[in-house]
Every structure is written in structure tokens, then in C-alpha cells.
Amino acid sequence: MNRSVSWGLSFFAAVAIAAGPAQAQTKLVYGNVTSVTLSQGVIIAAKALGFFKEEGIELEIVEFNGTGTLLPQMTAKRVHIGYPNPDVLMISRQPGRDPLPIKYFYNATRESAWEFIVPADSPIKDLKDLKGKKIGVGALSFGNIPITKAMFKEFGFEAELLPVGVGAPAFLAFREKKVDALNLFDSQHATMEVQGTAIRRLEMPKKYKDLFSNGFVAHEDMIRDDPKTLAAFGRAIAKTSVFCEANRAACVKAFWTLYPNQKPTSGDEATNIRNGIKIMAARFDKYLDFDNQKQRRWGEFPAQAWKDFATTLFEGGQLSTKDIAVETCYTNALVPEINRFDTAAIIARAKAAQ
Question: In whole angstroms, what is the distance from residue 274 CA to residue 185 CA?
């Protein structure tokens, strides 16, 4: 399912980091919880621009249909690194459950990536108006479903959740009004906007909007036995994040070299790049939400964020108790190694890219 293509183009040869003498590459399987889109612009750019190669990693990308289908493959150690929501992992930590042997090692999407949208002319004005409505979701196995259910419980109602997939099938269901609203992730909605569909985002309560979202996870055994490789993966992501912040257009171009079928075939180049940046930014800006930290610590989780997440799931009826061992869900032990790189050098390289 890896749809990568050759990226040996002159543009990327000019910006790729020289990895020095030939070195053995560690092969890793990365599991994405949906089909790959520009919302994964950073990880795809990390591959296209040579950041993984510099860290001694050869990455295979596999697509899944939600957190619920990814995590069993990670438990069986068929997938090394995943990018799920935390909901399912936390629910497995309840008393009486068998906890999944999976742990987060990199905080990527630092606020919620999930949104509710309606057509711009819809009579639905806020989330409470969704009572009794049909809401399109990617799949019932998607990691946002527990939080969506918790939110509706707080409002005192249930709504019909209809799996519509992502991309073209979801957009068609929305445009043909087969659903009253969509509850997908940020870049999906941004894609609809650049395609010309007028939408309106419904305001989410702050406590839900502020919840972190997808991050990078690995099996507990791998975190224990091979932290060096995971830190190298995280460092590649951190470097690419710095690069993409300094030159977003170059990251969009990098994405298109590996996923050329997603590059628009019509319109002028400048407009297509501008639209690509808008789609990528819908997710990438959440990578940069460091609450005004003077010195960013890429990948680090605030302990309180996990406690807030548990409280929200408990109040919404998705957890039997809010007193779960959230410290077993993540580790910040790799953060120092993840941040061991020259930020100024990466910025300079990004600014030199065309």
C-alpha cells in the first residue's frame, strides 16, 4: 500500500542533506490512520527531502482505516510506528481491561485536528443543533469517535454517525446532502474549501478544541529495546517541521513528488501551491502550537494534557474512571535526543530551497 515513487529530482538533490559515508538503513513500517493526504505533509516531506535517510531510516508507509484498525497491527509488531488518536489507547487503560502495549513517544498534533462542518447556507448554527441529525464520519473505527460521543453526551443527545470515508466519497455525501454535517479532520475540510465548496465550521467547546490529537506511537518493547531508532525518527520529524515552517512551498512540492496523483492537473502553479499550503497548514499549524514556549521542545507532552483528556473522556461516559494511569500512555524520555540538531542550519537550508 506504499504509494511512494522515485524522488531523485534535481530540486530535492539541491536541498537534501548529505548523509556522509554510506550507512546501513533501518527499515521501519509506518502506519497512517487514513489514506495519505497533505495533512501528513511533514512526514512525507521528511522522506522526500532526505531527513529520514540522514537518520539512517528507510520508511515504508502503510495506510489504515482508523486508529481501531491500526493498533492491532502495532500490537502484533507488524507496524513499528503509528500516528493514531489517543482515545482508544486511554480507554484500554481502564480497570478490568487489557492495556494495549503501545505508548506515545512524540507529541505531533498539539491541539485537536477534528472539526464539525456544515454547508455555508445550513440552518445549523452550533453543535447543539446537530440533535437528531446525520453526521458523516470517516469510519466508526476512527480515533475521534469516543470524543465525539462524549461531546454529544455533554449536550444531552445522540446523533446518527454515518461512515462516509474520506476524500471524494465524503465530499460527495456532503455536497449531495446525504449527511447534515461532517466530522472529519482539518485538512479534509480545507481541501473541500480550495475545491470551491462553501462550508462553515461549528464552534467546538474550548475543552475539546484544546485536546491534543494524533502523535507518534510505538510498541512498548521497541521503546525499551530500540530508543535510538525512535529518537532518530522523531528527530527527522522535528527537523522537517523546522524546514516546513521556513519554506512551506518546498514541503508541498516535496509531497507531490511522492504522491503525484494528488497534485492538481489544472490551474496555474502558483495557485496550486498556494492551495496546497492552505491544506497542509490546516494540520501543520497544530504542530507549532507550543503555547508561546521560548524554546520549543519538539515531541514533548505536557503531563496535564493527558489528565485533561482522561477527565473529558470520563465526563463523556467513555471512561469508567478519570483516575487511569495516564503516565503509562506516553514517554518524554526521547525528547532530548529528538531535539539534538542545529535549528539554524535547517532554516538556512529551507530558505535556500526553491
Answer: 20
